[in-house]
Amino acid sequence: MAIRLHFAAAVIGVMTFFPLANAAESLADIRQQQTQIRDDLAKGTLTLETGKHQKVDEQQRIVFGLIDGRQSFGELNPAQRISLRNALETINAALSGTSSAEEDREVCWQEKRTGSKLVTTVCGTVRERQQAKEGARDFMQRPRMCGGPGCGASP
Fold first, then answer.
1. Domain limits of the chain?
2. By C-alpha distance, which of 131, 129, 136, 81 is closest to 107?
3. Which of 2, 64, 113, 119 gets the highest tally of CB atoms within 10 A of its CB?
4. Full-prediction pTM beyond 0.70?
């Protein structure tokens, strides 16, 4: 339980100051925390359901792959920073042990705005992203009918 709270507090702290943090200390902290979690899972002092354990293993491979050989966040490009953040959030959700943790997990993605080449990073919970997808799908599937004089014309 103590490792979960320590990890959650550290992830929240790292994510709050993600772009501004003293990057060398932050990556070192992430590396240390993930190593501790991996070791605790291997020793059995931290137990997870099989599915969650596999998810943590998979996401830790992503985290270690991104931070190995790097000392600062500045060495990661924006897409790698997003991948790192998402992997840490997934690990945190798996360790939290609550049923709604997956839906409340924050995810980030990059979007290109219509009519622009500018790419922006957007973050939200898994639940919010799913609701937005469903809303867009419903809008696109809604029948479009135009009838009467001046249909489709501006007044």
1. 2-102
2. 129
3. 64
4. no
Closest CA to 38 of 68, 14, 63: 63
Residue-wise pLDDT for 105-146, tens only, equals 888 888 888 888 888 888 888 888 888 888 888 888 877 776
**Encoded tokens for 30:** 């992430």
Own/partner contacts of 140-143, CB < 8 Å, gap of 24 or more, are none
Helix boundaries (H) for the chain? 2-16, 23-43, 50-67, 78-96, 101-104, 126-141
Spatial separation of the C-alpha atoms in residues 32 and 29, rounded to whole Å: 5
In 3D space, the residue among 20, 148, 139, 30 whose CA is nearest the CA of residue 84 turns out to be 30
For residue range 64-106, list pLDDT tens digits in order.
999 999 999 999 999 999 999 999 999 988 888 766 777 788 8
